[in-house]
Amino acid sequence: MPPPKDVVKIAIQMVGAIPQLIELQQTKPLAAVLKDVCDAWSLPNAEHYALQYADGRQTYITESNRREIKNGSILRLTTSPDQEAERLYSGIQSKNVDVKTDSLKKLASLSQDVTFAQEFISRNGLKQIYSIVEEGNDTGEMLAHTLKAFTELMEHDFVSWDNLSTVFIKKIVSYVNMNAVDASIQQLSLSILENMVPTSRLLFELVKKEVTLDRLLTHLQVTNAQLQLKAMALLIALLLTATDAERRDMIDYLREKNIRQFIHKNIIHSSEPLGDEMAHYLYVLQSVSLNLCEHRMRTSMDPYSQEQRELLQSLRQTAFESESEAPASNFSTERRRSLCAKEFRKLGFMNNSNPAEDLRRAPPGLLALDNMVYFSRNTPNAYSRFVLENSSREDKHECPFARSSIQLTLMLCEILHVGEPCSETAQAFYPMFFGQDHFFEELFCICIQLVNKTWKEMRATQEDFDKVMQVVREQITRTLALKPTSLELFKTRVNTLNYSEILKLRQTERLHQEETLAVPVLELRERLKPELLELIRQQRLLHLCEGTLFRKISSRRRQDKLWYCRLSPNHKVLHYGDVEEGVESPPIESLTEKIPVADMKMLLVGKECPHTKEKSSGKQNKDVLELAFSIVHDMEEYCLNFVAPTRYEFCLWTDGLNVLLGKEMTSERTQTDLDVLLSMELKLRLLDLENISIPDNPPPIPKPPSNLNFCYDFSHAEQ
């Protein structure tokens, strides 16, 4: 007979004693449980003791988390958090260096526990840590333990970062700026500054002033991957916290220092594989850089601005200089205006008498004008060829340069997500972005020539403008999906994907769509679905058995802490636990925590999850909400919270958990996988019917014969 829900069978250890096997009554006060355990070992003062997990993170057991204890858990009787906090508080003040170092080392380990951290902070323990940093000159093991303990204590958000003294902050900064200091201390110092920067404007300004971009670039160029990562994290934190003007200045300075080329050569194309954290930081750096275009993109052209009018006139002069320069001064004002209008029409402006009107729409606003001017100045031959080539065509076959440029700029802004906020979890960056300083403008130069090329291939007229731009969008997005490493490679690939190739791809997709819409085929699809859905269910469960590495994410920042979760081979227990960086597939025995599948009650996703509701920030990040899910277990009182690393993992895990709960798989990935499997199976089944049209209706069944006495009588033959 299974034990009641409020009783768990556990083992309790103590150094030098025989372990106790007890049935823990969850309704019994924890103080009474400790009293019984201490009495069994004849220990006085039960209030001086506490229980903690013997394995994993060794969290203290409290009234708030005791329901997380599972059958078979191994606990340890140890000193209570308040006693341990008092002992370590005294130990870190010891004059004996060894005692002080050991106390700080233990403090750094225990500070991960929220109960202990609260006790230590309540004793004004952080003040002692401040003193050790501010007054000490040590840069060895003792300082490393001190900074680690400080980082862990601040992680619990009991104390505001604003309480830090300027002396303390400058001391931390000094460790970043020193050359002769241990790399682990520099990593911890960079991590502390990274956490500090987003919390207040004053701290941001202090760190920005004390830690120069040159110093961060120096750290980025080291061979120590972790130090490089922490330096990049601080750089990104500074960029995200800065104002638009400060961010532009910082990006301009980084461009002067050739930061992109360095990243392209030494980080993206490094011999070491790119980690998730670094991939995210590169995505953010790309996003922040591209978002510098947002202001121009959202600003309409001002027809009264002399500077903007001159830019517009420069387009006309560059294209038609040879034919209009000499006689222009001899024309009357009216004749000159008529000539300008004609030339602006040849440039492809819709409103040739007042071309500024074409640029009033925002987006793309002035960004389109900037791109056209960049194209005309940096590739004048290609620009002149584009304009003059179309000027010589019939009016209806002209590819309008200005109209195409405006629409293309808007298209590129949409494809590259210009003006959109950075995601907290995304890692999708374009390697070629870091290989070129003026990425957006250079990409425009390639794509505007692609527009002209595709226009000619389609033999388009003015009425086909939207169709041409749809094809160009498809060419660009399909090529970007291949993640070319340089703009030259992008140019080669996008030009190879010409209009005829796009037509072939579309035709293939259309034929595939058409063959699957015939009524008999639809009936066959329905018959095949149950079998293929079962195949998908098995694949989802196999994926859960392999397990996934999850990252812990707080409301303040992306954390380095990792944990792993996997399903047991018999599909009865979910095993999970914390793991170190670099561990890809830990054995199931090393995952100390577990949840029986039988105890799982329901699956929550998105905004329903408790860890998305608990965030201190009112502004929820869309990406985190899309990747969050929780398992409710143990009488709907406790949840195991997840934030999937990718949307793919989110779909596989939510599907797998729904299978375990006996529910339907609801993710979009299920439908995609089902469509792929159905398509493959249908093609195999219909292979013999190639080039044979399948009728919508089955052939009619013939009427039964009037006389059924037509079988051969074998009895007469035998005689």
Please name the CATH topology of the largest domain. Answer: Leucine-rich Repeat Variant
What is the CA-based Rg, rounded? 34 Å
Distance between the termini: 75 Å
The CATH superfamily of the largest domain appears as: Leucine-rich Repeat Variant
Q: How many structural units, i.e. domains?
A: 4
**Number of continuous helical runs:** 30
Task: Please indicate the percent range of residues in DSSP E strands (runs of 2 or more).
Answer: 5-15%
Protein name: ELMO3 protein
GO biological process, one term: apoptotic process
Organism: Onychorhynchus coronatus (Royal flycatcher)
GO molecular function: SH3 domain binding
What features would you describe in this structure?
The chain starts with 6 loop residues before the first strand and ends with a helix. The model is unreliable at 324-328 and 616-620 (pLDDT under 50). The protein is flat. Strand 5 and strand 6 (558-567) form a beta hairpin. By secondary structure, it is of the alpha+beta class. A four-stranded mixed beta sheet has the order 2-1-4-3. It folds into four domains: 7-79, Ubiquitin-like (UB roll) (Roll); 87-286, Leucine-rich Repeat Variant; 298-321 and 334-509, no CATH class; 530-671, PH-domain like (Roll), CATH 2.30.29.30.
